[in-house]
Design goal:
Blueprint lengths: L3 E2 L2 H23 L4 E7 L3 H16 L3 E7 L5 H13 L5 E4 L9 H7 L11 H9 L7 H14 L6 E5 L6 H10 L3 E5 L6 H6 L3 E4 L17 E4 L3 E2 L11 E2 L4 H4 L5 E2 L7 H19 L9
Bound molecules: guanine (GUN).
Length: 297
């Protein structure tokens, strides 16, 4: 058997198109474009690339991008003052502070300072709480993107066995919550789980978010399982090459012999994250402007 390849890149492109057309509609009703502010502190090279891509995608979707690049030694007070200013700015619907922050800044208190109604990352405790009790708020982009791919592929998830590997606040925990809300039977596995392979083998749905290259092989998978690979790991470069290959947490080729469907790396979950960020910003804009959120977005 060869698994269906779940094309996150194509799904994300279609989502960005839909968001773009709703953004045009929004602008004609509200008299302004939806606005997203992205704050980057320091010069982490990967974060610089992400922030650049987010800015470009925001503009391409017909939204206003406000970028703030601050030096690595920015004080907590200065960063909090900027977030306050963005909270109060009516042209800004979403605020994203790129993580990780430099060590001297406390991520929890910075995230807590973002208005929950502009927290398009869904990292604020208010939004984590809303997700946990089933109120509408903002859901972190990566797990929401995984959920879109899963429901597109499987439809109703009721009663399915889902195993989430990884328990981070950004992916594992909200992912489990979303699967639970969709009536799956959910297990969260992690580095201390005993006999992880046997736990994963029960799963109709596997979401891997551990950050260990090719950890999950074909022997771990139930035949026909749907596999969502959140891992993005760079292997050491081969001789004569400058950069190593990007691989997921799942050994794609061999897993494809057993799984029913699987996301590739790259081109699976990765492109969904920015598309969902734009989607969340569009939703924030409608809520902030007192307009009905478009259906099915
Ligand atoms: N760093 C890596 N991914 C993310 C993300 O989705 N949001 C923020 N704010 N920082 C990140």
């Amino acid at each position: 058997m060869t698994a269906t390849r779940i094309d996150g890149k194509a799904f994300a492109a279609a989502l960005r198109e839909r968001v773009g057309s709703h953004a045009l509609d929004f602008a004609s009703k509200a008299g302004r474009k939806p606005g997203l502010a992205v704050v980057l502190v320091g010069e982490d090279p990967a974060s610089q690339v992400y922030v650049g891509s987010k800015g470009k995608a925001t503009v391409a979707a017909g939204m206003e991008s406000f970028e703030h690049r601050l030096p690595a030694d920015t004080s907590a007070d200065a960063l909090l003052a900027l977030v306050d200013k963005l909270n109060a700015d009516e042209n800004i619907d979403g605020i994203l502070v790129q993580l990780p922050l430099p060590d001297h800044l406390d991520e929890h208190s910075i995230i807590a300072s973002i208005s929950p109604d502009k927290d398009v990352d869904g990292f604020h405790v208010i939004n984590a709480g809303r997700l946990s009790v089933g109120q509408s708020g903002f859901v972190p982009c990566t797990p929401l993107g995984c959920m879109m791919l899963l429901t597109d592929r499987l439809g109703d998830l009721s009663g399915l066995e889902a195993v989430v590997i990884g328990r981070s606040n950004i992916v594992g925990k909200p992912m489990a919550q979303l699967l639970l809300d969709a009536n799956a039977t959910v297990t969260i596995a992690h580095s201390r789980t005993k006999d992880l392979a046997a736990v994963v083998k029960r799963a109709d749905i596997v979401v891997a978010a551990v950050g260990r290259p090719n950890m999950i092989g074909k022997d771990w998978l139930k035949p026909g399982a749907t596999v969502i690979d959140v891992g993005i790991n760079r292997l050491p470069p081969e001789p004569g090459k400058e950069k190593g290959k990007l691989v997921g947490d799942v050994a794609f080729d061999e897993a494809s012999e057993v799984a029913g469907a699987i996301t590739p790396v790259p081109g699976g979950v990765g492109p969904m994250t920015i598309a969902v960020l734009l989607r969340n910003t569009l939703v924030a804009a409608h809520r902030n402007a007192g307009l009905a959120v478009p259906e099915g977005i």
